[in-house]
């Protein structure tokens, strides 16, 4: 299961153009569920700038280094706040030379050397071309959420390319809510209010219609899933008549509800799943404690050439198979199974559900539905009261 990263942004304040761009980048990260620390909104007047930088660089999960000509020059010369930041950065790199905590983001560097000396040789994300911002931003989200930009099951290609290797299609200015509403109507024609599909096979067939290619575009991923986490959906596949794979989540469908109880931008899909069979790789004794703590139980593992391996082996890039150590070579695919009934919502990125103030209530009601202490009608009523988001 993906977790929400905390990100600190390090940049030079001398160029107002870059400063404004950094602010826009930070806003986009927050819109995509990334907890972002930025001095422009987190540093109070009178606060100690060096202390703020030190806390941000040392306590955040990831640090974005916005590499501009000014930043690179000032960091190499050890000037001002930028020099102070790179002193901390260098110290952490020495302690852990292979860390991927620091992500260089290139923004209009004119020289052949794109990063400060302390980050030389590291791969970077290039934001220099404004017209290609969305592709670069999606790569950054993949990196921050720890989801490799590997082959998509339904395409067999990078999620940033079509099967022919060309650029992803454009949404042509269409918002995520309009796109979702259109696909919703195609998969659930005539649905008004709450329409239940109790037959899992029928539910899977409708999801196949909904996830007809393409549903990933160069501007981004309009369809997201929402639970006690949230994330864009990059791939969909049918594993069996009643089981689907949404990114790395194996979902054994129990029932589906197509909810169209308000305006087009308020439509969503509710999925309830059955408990999956455990992989047999992990200790499942804590299942009751997991259910008590978070409302459901789950396990993570991976598949390597159709064979299950432990999550720790997936993370290490090698596994012991038939007594031999084998390099996974990037072939392993992460899997999440739910070992108890589970539920989640599919909705557009621009849905009113995309509201941090709603997160706690959303989890509370979804858990309540699993315990039969709440209803989908209550969840729908709460969503209909949420404010409309800007078009995304």
Keywords, separated by commas or semicolons:
alpha/beta, globular, 3 domains
Q: Taking Cα atoms only, what radius of gyration do you get, to the nearest Å?
A: 22 Å
Unreliable stretches? 148-166
Proportion of beta-strand residues: 15-25%
Morphology: globular
Question: Any idea how many domains?
Answer: 3
**Total DSSP helices:** 12
The portion of residues assigned to helices is 25-40%
Question: What is the typical, i.e. mean, pLDDT?
Answer: 82
The span between the termini is 25 Å
The count of β-strands is: 18
Give me the strand/helix succession.
Answer: EHEHHEHHEEHHEHEEEEEEHEEHEEEEHH
Task: Summarize the biggest pleated sheet.
Answer: 11 strands, mixed
Strand pairing plus helix content: what structural class?
A: alpha/beta
Produce the secondary structure layout:
Blueprint: E1 6-10, H1 16-31, E2 35-37, H2 39-42, H3 49-59, E3 62-67, H4 69-77, H5 80-95, E4 102-106, E5 125-126, H6 133-144, H7 176-187, E6 193-197, H8 200-210, E7 223-226, E8 230-232, E9 236-240, E10 243-246, E11 249-260, E12 268-273, H9 287-294, E13 298-304, E14 307-310, H10 311-316, E15 318-321, E16 324-327, E17 333-338, E18 342-348, H11 359-370, H12 376-384
Parallel strand pairs: 1-2, 1-3, 3-4, 4-5, 11-17
Antiparallel strand pairs: 6-11, 7-8, 7-18, 9-10, 10-11, 11-12, 12-18, 13-14, 13-17, 15-16
Q: In a few lines, what is going on in this structure?
A:
With 392 residues, this protein is α/β, with parallel strands linked by helices.
């Amino acid at each position: 299961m993906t977790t929400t990263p905390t990100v600190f942004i390090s940049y030079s304040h001398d160029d107002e153009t870059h400063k404004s761009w950094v602010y826009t980048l930070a806003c986009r990260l927050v819109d995509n569920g990334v907890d972002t620390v930025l001095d422009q909104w987190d540093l109070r007047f009178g606060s100690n700038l060096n202390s703020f930088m030190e806390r941000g660089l040392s306590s955040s999960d990831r640090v974005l280094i916005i590499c501009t000509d000014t930043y690179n020059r000032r960091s190499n010369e050890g000037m001002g706040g930028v020099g102070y930041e790179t002193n901390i950065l260098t110290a952490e790199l020495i302690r852990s030379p292979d860390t991927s905590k620091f992500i260089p983001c290139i923004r209009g560097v004119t020289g052949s050397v794109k990063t400060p000396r302390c980050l030389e040789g590291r791969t970077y994300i290039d934001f220099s071309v404004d017209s290609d911002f969305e592709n670069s931003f999606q790569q950054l989200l993949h990196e921050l959420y720890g989801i490799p930009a590997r082959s998509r099951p339904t395409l067999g290609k990078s999620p940033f390319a079509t099967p022919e290797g060309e650029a992803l299609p454009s949404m042509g200015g269409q918002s995520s809510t309009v796109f979702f509403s259109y696909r919703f109507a195609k998969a659930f024609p005539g649905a008004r209010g709450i329409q239940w599909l109790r037959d899992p096979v029928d539910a899977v067939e409708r999801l196949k219609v909904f996830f007809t290619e393409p549903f990933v575009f160069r501007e981004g991923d309009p369809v997201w899933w929402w639970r006690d986490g949230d994330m864009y959906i990059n791939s969909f596949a049918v594993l069996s008549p009643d089981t689907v794979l949404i990114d790395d989540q194996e979902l054994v469908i129990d029932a589906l509800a197509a909810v169209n109880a308000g305006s087009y931008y308020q439509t969503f899909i509710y999925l309830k799943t059955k408990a999956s069979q455990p992989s047999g790789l992990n200790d499942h004794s804590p299942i009751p404690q997991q259910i008590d703590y978070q409302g459901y139980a789950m396990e993570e593992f991976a598949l390597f050439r159709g064979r299950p391996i432990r999550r720790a082996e997936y993370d290490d890039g090698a596994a012991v198979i038939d007594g031999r150590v084998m390099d996974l070579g990037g072939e392993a695919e992460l899997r999440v199974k739910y070992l108890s009934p589970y539920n989640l919502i599919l909705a557009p990125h621009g849905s009113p559900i995309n509201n941090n103030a709603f997160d706690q209530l959303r989890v509370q009601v979804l858990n309540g539905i699993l315990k039969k202490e709440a209803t989908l009608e209550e969840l729908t009523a709460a969503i209909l009261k949420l404010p409309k988001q800007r078009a995304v």
